[in-house]
Please model this.
Amino acid sequence: MGLRCGIVGLPNVGKSTLFNALSSNKAEAANFPFCTIEPNVGVITVPDERLNKLAEIVKPEKVIPTTIEFVDIAGLVKGASKGEGLGNQFLSHIREVDAIIHVIRCFVDDNIVHVDGKVDPVSDKEIIDTELQLKDLDTIEKRIVRVEKVAKSGDKVAKQDYEALVKIKEHLESGMNARSLKLDYWPADLFLLTSKPVIYVANVEEGSITTGNEHVEFLKKSIEGEDAELIMISAAIESQIAELDDPGERELFLDEYGLKYSGLDLLIKSSYSLLNLITYFTAGEKEVRAWTIHNGWKAPKAASVIHTDFERGFIKAEVIKYDDYLQYGSEHACREKGKLSIEGKEYIVKDGDVMHFRFNV
Model:
């Protein structure tokens, strides 16, 4: 499955600079709004030391990591929900992603214009939230009009939909995002923007990357109680890291700033955690490959990310735990030691499983 994360925020908060650094693509970065109109897409390989260690053992022809797509979506402004600043176009791009990475400016630099004339991360967050909420309200109100008459006719599903839609509408009107509303029942196919999981990225100056600053603290308080993650990244530092090709040099550079992980690593870890994703592996002479699935998926569903026929004709899965594969050094040795298990349709795949599927269509 392909993971797609949309990078959003007001103009001039560092979105495109961060995107360029993460993807090594060159989205245009300039000191004026609407520099990015069509979304730039960067396909990022997910670093996973387990994949490398398996490759060292198997020595395959190819090693294929899993990937994440980062989409640099143009800066939103007040009125985007009503079409301001090409807002409708931008909002449609957000609808297509799995998760939102909301970049918020938490640094002061007189050389970089702020769209509202001052650095206020809480206000910036609220502007984006409001525009997404207004767009969702429009979606909900249109659905209510369609459902209400059917509900009054006695249709049970329509009645259930209508009651839920009214609650969602009230929640959005109170200035809250849909993701924070706890409902036992949700109408199908709403595709609400504010129901998408979000990672808030506080873009700080280099000197604040380990300590944070008052802007970050204000932002943290503003998202308390919200089902979201917040990480600090310096787009300026990430730009410098992107220019270093040697992994050793990158590690030394991070050490100088007291950092263990790059911003890319933090975003990937947060994205996987937020979306409840795990990785399993396939290992053979032709290729060693990583596959991303949702935590809790059973073996047939996990097999479907390789090919839908694998799910449709699933017979069984051969499973070796990653640690066992490393300890015994080969699939053959794991089989001889009784460390290869045969699992059926009810087996729930675990993070790090090395798997081989048997199927018949």
